Amino acid sequence: MAREVIAVRGVACEYATPRGNVPALEAIDLTVAEGEFVAVVGPSGCGKSTLLKILAGLLPTTRGEVRLRDVPVTGPRRDIGVVFQSPVLFPWRTVLDNVLLPVDVQRLGRGANLRRALDLLALVGLSGFEERYPWELSGGMQQRVAITRALIHNPAMLLMDEPFAALDAMTRESMNLELQRIWLERRETVLFITHSIPEAVFLADRVFVMTARPGRILEEVAVRIPRPRALEATAAAEFGALVQRIRGHFSPRAGS
Amino acid sequence: MKRQVLRAAVLVVSLALWEGAVRALRVPAFILPPPSQVLLALQRGAASNIYLPHLWVTLLETLLGFASGSLLAFLLGTGLAASRTAEYFFYPYIVMFQSMPKVALAPLIVVWFGLGLTSKVVSAALVAFFPLLVNTIAGLRSADEDRVNLMKSLAASELQIFWMLRLPSALPFIMAGLEVAMVFALVGAIVAEFVGAEAGLGMLIQSRNFSMDVAGEFAVLFILSLMGLLLNWGLVSIRRRVLFWDPSEKAGPLAGEIP
């Protein structure tokens, strides 16, 4: 088995409210191995984003611990790339300058990373847009800039928090293909959070199913559909069966 | 183009109405002079080179007051935005100070700082201070939460978050505050000149008022409003360069702009 990049053990998180502590996450266990694409799927409000913030070191855990390459995560780390639901680009920076933001923040040296930035932009299909500003791009292109920015400092792990949720359905499909292509080329370690079951099954090697209040992991589902997966794969019986199985956790069951 | 012609027509028609009304109703010139006399006064003053030295004095007072008041407001605003504790302890007093009409302070300022340039600069700075202070605080706190989280996820320091995110996010607010501050600085300078000054357009208005030269007063008022307009133009063109990325800049002309 490949080396673990991230290990989450017994992580719980409670929010303090005037009426007492509200548990957001309860005893989460999961690991992601080197070069693995893992998805976490669950309904809105199940604590997916809380989990991502904990992994990114933006939020402390109440119990349990997160280890990244065997070092406990206690705060923000330089070796994590995060892609948020909205592109979160800076409108006063050009596309290239936005991509180089982590380089500027972590003082990695622009000279050494310029070539890399241009190559990554070419990889996501944004050659020729380097000097444009974010507001000149479509939503899908902006999100591709955000993915490039998350990769520029060569992070150990890519955290993606519903990155395509704000896009229309067709752009979303093409972005899924695009992300798969990028991932097949670079084999980043990815933890991808989504509320779309087909998206999780299409993209991931393993899917963790989460339920709400408090957030818990119900099941871990391995997806063995061979890559590269075409959109037609979503019509296959194997794909449908996996989606159905995961959906079963969320559909209101009679008598329960 | 057509709009610009129409805009000029508004001015010409109102001046003509003014001229016609004053002549038809035989209003004495020491109450309301017709535009033609104001123009004559402007011409006479320009020929004897009265205006330029005074204009220069008032402009200098305004710009120095604007610069020092804005700098102080920016620094204090940054401090108050950075620390809720500082805001808790100081902000109520700053608001109290602001609620006091600072025009009423002008006589004191002249007593403390004399009849020269200093008292005018202090008065202009005091009046210009508050709008930028409020806008700086609001602007620095306006940074998008997701962007702050992004910076934090990159392990950025607070200082880096300030320079790379909070300050650029605050610029639309700061530029708006600067525009108000410029107009206010001019008011502050003129008021202090009214109280007591050796030179300046405010002093010129005062002395012409004493000699009942109302047409001359109007001539100075005209110069003052022209000066205010030019100062605003300067700031607007700076804002356009600095805020090229701001949606409000791309949405078309804003109030107060002269395209």
The number of strands of chain B is: 0
Assign the structural class of chain A, choosing from mainly alpha, mainly beta, alpha/beta, alpha+beta, or little secondary structure.
alpha/beta
Main pleated sheet of chain B: none
Based on the coordinates given, report the CATH architecture of the largest domain in chain A.
Answer: 3-Layer(aba) Sandwich
In brief:
With 256 residues, chain A is α/β, with parallel strands linked by helices. Chain A has helices at residues 48-55, 95-99, 101-105, 110-123, 139-151, 169-186, 197-203, 237-247; strands spanning 4-17, 20-33, 37-41, 63-68, 71-72, 80-83, 157-161, 190-194, 206-211, 216-222. Chain A contains eight helices and ten strands.
Could you outline the blueprint of secondary structure elements for this entry?
The complex is a heterodimer of chains A (256) and B (259).
Chain A: E1 4-17, E2 20-33, E3 37-41, H1 48-55, E4 63-68, E5 71-72, E6 80-83, H2 95-99, H3 101-105, H4 110-123, H5 139-151, E7 157-161, H6 169-186, E8 190-194, H7 197-203, E9 206-211, E10 216-222, H8 237-247
Parallel strand pairs in A: 3-8, 3-9, 6-7, 7-8
Antiparallel strand pairs in A: 1-2, 1-4, 4-5, 9-10
Helix pairs in contact in A: 7-8
Chain B: H1 2-24, H2 35-47, H3 51-82, H4 84-99, H5 106-113, H6 117-140, H7 145-153, H8 158-195, H9 201-210, H10 214-242, H11 247-250
Helix pairs in contact in B: 2-10, 3-4, 3-6, 3-8, 3-9, 5-6, 5-8, 6-8, 7-8, 8-9, 8-10, 9-10
Which terms summarize this structure?
heterodimer, A: 256 residues, alpha/beta, Rossmann fold, 2 domains, six-stranded mixed β-sheet, four-stranded antiparallel β-sheet, 8 helices, 10 strands, B: 259 residues, mainly alpha, 11 helices, 0% strand, globular, disordered C terminus
